């Protein structure tokens, strides 16, 4: 596979992941962290790092807006729930 095709496939997979996460707003970041070891904020940081590597001007808020599909504060107000005691305990256990 040539580099351009690989890049296009990876980009398509990333867009599909973002679409999936957008449809699953019920899945909290702490759930993602507990199960997969990354969350929407991690994706935002990776996106920002990739932009910086390519010389694209972007800040963290802009990267998060791309990943969340809206400004982070708006997403947080609409969809973020308080983590349960169980979620917090699982997070502490998995991140020691």
Keywords:
single chain, 96 residues, mainly alpha, SMc04008-like fold, 0% strand, globular
Structural description of this entry:
The chain has a single domain, classed as SMc04008-like (SMc04008-like fold). 73% of the residues lie in helices and 0% in strands. The protein has 6 helices and no strands. The chain has helices at residues 3-23, 29-36, 40-53, 60-68, 72-79, 85-94. Helix 2 packs parallel to helix 6.
User: Percentage of helical residues?
Assistant: over 70%
- How many helices? The count is 6
Mean pLDDT across all amino acids: 96
Number of E strands: 0
CATH fold category name: SMc04008-like fold
| Count of distinct structural domains | 1
Major sheet characteristics: none
What are the low-pLDDT stretches, counting only 5+ consecutive residues below 50?
none
CATH superfamily: SMc04008-like
CATH architecture: Orthogonal Bundle
Rg computed from alpha carbons, rounded to a whole number of angstroms: 15 Å
- Beta-strand fraction estimate: under 5%
Distance between the termini: 40 Å
* Run of helices and strands: HHHHHH
Structural class: mainly alpha
The CATH class is identified as Mainly Alpha
The 3D shape can be described as globular
What secondary-structure arrangement, pairings included, does this model have?
Layout: H1 3-23, H2 29-36, H3 40-53, H4 60-68, H5 72-79, H6 85-94
Helix pairs in contact: 2-6, 3-4
């Amino acid at each position: 596979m040539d580099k351009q095709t690989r890049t296009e496939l990876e980009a398509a997979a990333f867009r599909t992941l973002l679409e999936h996460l957008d449809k699953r707003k019920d899945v909290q970041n702490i759930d993602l962290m507990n199960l997969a070891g990354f969350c929407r904020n991690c994706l935002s940081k990776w996106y920002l790092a990739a932009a910086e590597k390519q010389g694209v001007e972007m800040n963290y808020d802009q990267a998060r807006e791309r990943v969340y599909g809206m400004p982070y504060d708006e997403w947080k107000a609409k969809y973020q729930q308080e983590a349960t005691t169980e979620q917090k305990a699982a997070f502490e256990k998995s991140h020691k």
